[in-house]
Amino acid sequence: MSKRQRPLIPADDPFYALPTDFEHDVPGAIIKTRPVEIGFLGVVPQAVDATQMLYHSTAMNGEPTIAVTTVVRGKGRAVSAHVLSYQCAIDAIDSTQFPSYEFQRGSRFVVSVPRLEYLLVAAAVRRGWTVSIPDHEGLQGNWGVAREPGYHILDGVRAILNDEAATDSAIPVGLWGYSGGGLASSWAAEMAAEYAPELNVIGAVLGSPVGDPGETLRRLNGTVFAGLPVLVIAALTRNYPEVRSLIDVHGTDRGKQELERAAGMSTMQAIGAFARHEISEFTDLTMPQILADPRLQTVLDDIRLGGRAPAMPVLVTQSVNDPVISVDDVTAQVDRYREKGADVTFLRDRLSEHILLHPLAAPHSIAWLDDRCEAGLPGTAQPGETTTVWSIALSRVWLANVVELLLVVVLVVCGRDLRRSKRPQ
């Protein structure tokens, strides 16, 4: 593929341009669409049908805004029998890290998680799902903000149904994401009943969904994963005047420069650049002083998950020994949901860690969504049950579905058609 054939980065792509009259339509209304070619790792062309949609949505404080999703279907599948919104672990601010760009064939290669997550999208497509992969951080990379990711996710599903002129409100909708995608999916699960009550959301899989971003910020500060708190602060500075005020007053010149530099990095770049660094290196305050500041406390309270009970059944997966997302924080999120009456199945894994659990939990997660979609079953564990296993890979459900996932990997790497004549029982 020649250089001039490469997709434009979002900052230069007119498809992402904000229309002048976008405030005057309802959330989920489509502004424009275009076909795109999907390439695994940006290189291997995929035998799927893919469309991108620019649609009306809502920002965190209720203002109108726009968002983008990439819709992937099996070849020749025109109408959705069921829709899955898959939220990638974007965990970065720069728009070149968004799936709408990274999934396109010819996109500039960087090491990122969303590129590999296409394998899970493909697994869902093979099972007959129409998959929406929204840029859930919005066009500006609003990572970590409250509510807004949920709005973008739910409006992406609305856009698909609007595009198909769907009149069947019973079309099953599933939600799935891991880590930063689990955090975004949590917001969608929490907001669905209030914001999009017409959608038939039959289940949400929340993989390592963060739970308490503020506590995660405190715990990772100064560790090998310190780049993640730096990215969070950089994103919150853009979106919360309280954080901007804190940085304006107490940030050093070097600190402000480093936050600007982080805004253009991928997740892996930020982790490498800021490993073992302390946030206090960028300010004239210590980390306890920063966390105790009332301005930051207001923001951390706003972005903490668990303020609303998801109306649909939820499956949460989490590694007990996760060095990035604490099992205690996720347990607290589950407890907050259950206290409000939510149906949450909590599956904890002892032998994995943060990165490994994502692919290991995938066969179990997609089987649970299939159960919810096809038969209205409560999933593969008892509703409300907390189960701690040595390894999710030793379960009967995992063994029954992992061969299918491995086949999908082969099909994707070879660029072969994902369709099949019959879904597994």
TrEMBL record:
Query: Which residues span the membrane?
Result: 397-415
The entry's keywords? Membrane, Transmembrane, Transmembrane helix
* Entry superkingdom: Bacteria
Q: Which SUPFAM superfamilies match?
A: alpha/beta-Hydrolases
Classification via InterPro entries: AB_hydrolase_fold, Lipase_secreted
The name of this protein is Lipase family protein
Upper classification of the source organism reads: Bacteria, Bacillati, Actinomycetota, Actinomycetes, Mycobacteriales
